[in-house]
Amino acid sequence: MKLTQEERSMLAGDMGEHKRWAMEHMIQVGNFFDAPDFVPISQAHMMADTESLGEAGVEFLEYLAEMVEEESPLAVPMLTDPRGIDLSCYKKFGQNDEMAKRERRAINACKKLGILMTDTCINYQIIMPPVKGDHVAFGDTGVVIYSNSVLGAYTNFEGGPSALAAGFSGRTPRYGLHLQENRMATKRFVIKDQPNGLTDWGVLGGYIGRMCGSYWQIPVIEGIDSVPSSDDMKHFGAAMASFGSTPLFHIVGITPEAPTLSAVCSESNLEVNEITSEHLDSLRNDFGKKGDKIDVVVFAAPQLSLVEMHDVANLLDGKTIHEDTAVIVCTAPAVGADCDRLGITQRIESSGAMVLRGTCFYQQYAREVAEARGWKRLLSNSTKIVNIISGYGYEPALASMEDCVASAIAGEIV
Amino acid sequence: MTVELKCHRGIGEKVQGIALVAHDNFSARYDLNRIAGVFSRPQHLLYGQSYVDKILVLNTSKGGVASAWMLYEMKSRAMAPKAILFNTTNTILAQGAAMANISLCDRFDDGDVTALIKTGDHIVVDPGEGLVTIL
Questions:
Q1: Within 10 Å of residue A36's Cβ, how many Cβ atoms?
Q2: CB-based contact, B76 to chain A, within 8 Å
Q3: Which of A261, A243, A244, A240 is nearest to A252 (CA)?
Q4: B31 and A CB contact within 8 Å
């Protein structure tokens, strides 16, 4: 990789150990992907839930934090993805003191490094959305696909260590989605039946992701009749990234890089794949059926926006959830504060549901919590989470937000 | 007779071991019970099998960002694969391999690596040379 004088100084350790480590790590990755050089970034976002960090990851963060003297070693603002524990209610949720202790250590280390503990995977909705052409280093697949596709920013999937390295150095290797040639469409889809609601958008995204099947396949989608909401795009992208490891999509006439089909592909080169409701049912039918008993209903993955929280509250108003069924609702701390102020939290929790702040269900020791609570059958309106969660020992089912609430009250899928 | 497979220059040190192969994809979060060291996702072709100290040979990496920290954590407990070979990897597994010092290669010249290598093959992975040898 071609390095500037400043980058050579960082690599030599002249600007401190944090930046030296960052450059060494990123050069390995950059060489692997044939990056010609580095590109400056405006912000970074790191996954650092303690379940994925483990003891080794927490110790690594503490090692970096111990070296901080006065100034933060960060070169750009750095945010965090959801954490592993909501410390205000972890015992009730089914987590233990050992998990909480590790979480506090990770939080203390991140704070000492100067990281802004936003604990959210919807930073593009509630913190600082990047703008078109903005190079960033974001560490959550849902955040990445939304930022690339809906906002026109430039970011790869950045794992925790690489996001941290980008934060320390203020740059990232120029490969993958930072290069225009990798942002062109490689698969073409035409939608024949319009999605309606968050779960439909998630199923459509999951189906397209499954059809793409690789980080290096970029779909372009035609046939969407109306402009979707930010929450629609959130579920669409998160599911696509989950099923396909897909980092970018284009919707003709809607997303910023695709005002026309020809802006993102050569029309004659790509086979047209039509998607009908039968295709989507083939994915949906993998996840649960009416009458199945339900242990836990989860609203998460991604964290809920204020609008989604309001919708859940409206559906739960005056209702009581079934005694054998739990309802977990995950949102960002910033949204949680607004929900407290607006009375939304109280309306949700009056039903017996539990609101968690700064976490996301699958990032918070889902296997151990299942054992502690005796949970196996999980229902959600998130196509992303039903794709992820079976590896943790759950039997996942999928339904709309309205049907999830009705099922939580009935104790079985309605 | 040995067989040499050329690939893109990889990450990590030269290692050798026994291959565990499937034409399936991979995420540490989605597919593994990392405490027990086995594939735990019922739909995965390697469900129930131990990956510890094996050289995993799979199609591509999938899903989420967590695999990067997870490879580092698994390596710290000596519960990691010895190396991972993909047809193509996403960015996360490459970043995680670099952090954890787990050998990783992809982009093979001779086609589908999950067809070229069989479970139980004794193989040598040389990322610096971009070369995998079936002994």
A1: 12
A2: yes
A3: A261
A4: yes
User: What is the chain B residue with the closest CA to A28?
Assistant: B98
Q: Is B45 on the interface with A (CB under 8 A)?
A: no
| Residues A312 and A406 occupy one common structural domain | yes
CATH assignment at residue B63: 3.50.30.10
Q: CA A133 to CA A192: how far, in whole Å?
A: 31
B121 touches chain A (CB under 8 A): no
- Please name the residue that has the structure tokens 């050992």: A98
Structural domain boundaries, residue A369: 296-410
Whether residues A53 and B73 touch (CB distance < 8 A) is answered with yes
A260 and A319 part of one domain: no
For residues A133 and A30, state if they share a domain. Answer: yes
Are the beta carbons of B94 and A32 separated by less than 8 Å? yes
Q: Please state whether the predicted TM-score (pTM) of the whole model is above 0.90.
A: yes
CB contact under 8 A, B8 and A32: yes
Kindly report the nearest CA distance between residue B70 and chain A, in angstroms.
5
Q: Which two tokens stand for residue A345?
A: 């939290």
Split into its structural domains, chain A has a count of: 3
> Which residue out of A47, A80, A157, A246 would a mutagenesis test of the B interface target, given it has the greatest number of B Cβ atoms within 10 Å?
A157
Please, which residues bridge with residue A173 across strands? Answer: A38
* CB nearest B40 (choices: A55, A161, A391): A391
What's the total number of domains in chain B?
Answer: 1
pLDDT for the residue B27: 92
Distant-in-sequence contacts of B32-39, Cβ < 8 A, 24+ apart: B32/A391, B32/B70, B33/A367, B33/A391, B34/B70, B34/B73, B34/B74, B34/B79, B35/B79, B37/B79
Which chain B residues contact residue A57 at CB under 8 A? Answer: 69, 72-73
Q: Are residues A156 and A197 in the same domain?
A: no
A309, pLDDT greater than 90: yes
Q: Is A324 left (phi over 0), alpha (psi -120 to 50) or beta?
A: alpha
ipTM (interface pTM): 0.97
Could you report the per-residue pLDDT of A149-158, keeping only the tens digit for each? 999 999 999 9
